[in-house]
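Q: How would the structure tokens look for this protein?
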Amino acid sequence: MTIPVLPEPAFPDLESMLSRKFGKEIANYFSGSPLNRVSFLRTDHSFLSAALKHPTTSFLVFNNLSPLARDPSNLEFLSYADVQPLIGENPYSKSEEQLVSEYNSTVTVPQLLFLGLDERNKQGLTFNIYTGSPYFALDVTPKGTIQAQAESLVQSLQVRGLKFLEGRIQAALPAQDAAIYAQARALLDWNTRNPFCAQCGQPTMSINGGMKRTCPPKDMASLAGAIGGTVGAGPTERPDCATRRGISNVCFPRTDPTVIMAVVSADGKKVLIGRQKRWPPYWYSTLAGFVEPAESVEEAVRREVWEESGVKLGRVVIHSTQPWPYPANLMIGAIAQCIPGGEEIVLKHDPELEDARWAEMGEIREALRVGTSALGESAQEGYKEGNLRLPASTAIANQLLTAVANGFVGEAPKI
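A: Here is the predicted structure in token form.
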């Protein structure tokens, strides 16, 4: 698999006090989207209606969270005419308030997401002071009352020689397409996982361009099977729900903060790496783990490293971050240094790792040169079997290891 070029950070050539002190910003794979999300327009049904049908509008469709593509490196974007048989003439013809009041839990509504505007296209939609090509994502998974229409659409796309990319991780896409894919996949996954209200158990509906879900007060259908369900032809009042009172009246997409860290020895000459049992031989990476409630990033780094390896850390510095849409993580990349005398590796606390060890900087540099790849893929030319393997540059672990191998922990560290 060809590893794509990483995205450019915002304003890569701009000199500033911050860039002179901390170095250039690092942009990781799945970040760097070209889209302006214009989140404040998601409730404007006149804007969404205009965006839906504009000639420059693109739709990225998913079947069971697999994106439509020509091949593993090229997504296929559809037009309004392609998806209209599934979504109907205009699902945004009515305001959100009207749609909520007419909610019918027995009718399957295709999950449609507004992703944003690509402002590079000056011939795109102009709405107020904003101009750009609109982007949407659409779930075409056959289910419920739209099963026949969805199956027909999927079959028509396959007849055209297109396919839905299988596999959990898509890491061969060009950087900007990968960022659009990541946004779409994470939001579709969240909507799919949250069809019911966490408070009362009633079905919820998607609003705000697919970015929120609400628990409607009425239902046009019988809900005898739901918790506290109603009966009758409707519209019927649904049981009271705490989400309809106060400011917490909608459900927002979930993002799970995760720390991932390159740990340097007290003398700055070695790096801590670990491996899981399921990984291929000789394959190692940095340590990682979830941030727990009421825990700072720095505390999470120290805790996870001690739990997994027994190593004790001092200073922790945040390096860069990476969205990871599997399903909704934000990888917070950090670089940390071991305290003097805290380098002993003890694997008896948390059994997550099969092995952890200290690697000399020279070994890390050689692995970064010829031993990187996606998990299970072949290494580069020049790799010698039995030597260290590391993640590809599309993984933030690679960027963290590259930083420490290039002297991040020194007299004048640069991010």
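DSSP finds nine helices and 20 strands in the chain.

The first helix runs from residue 17 to 22.

Upvote if useful.
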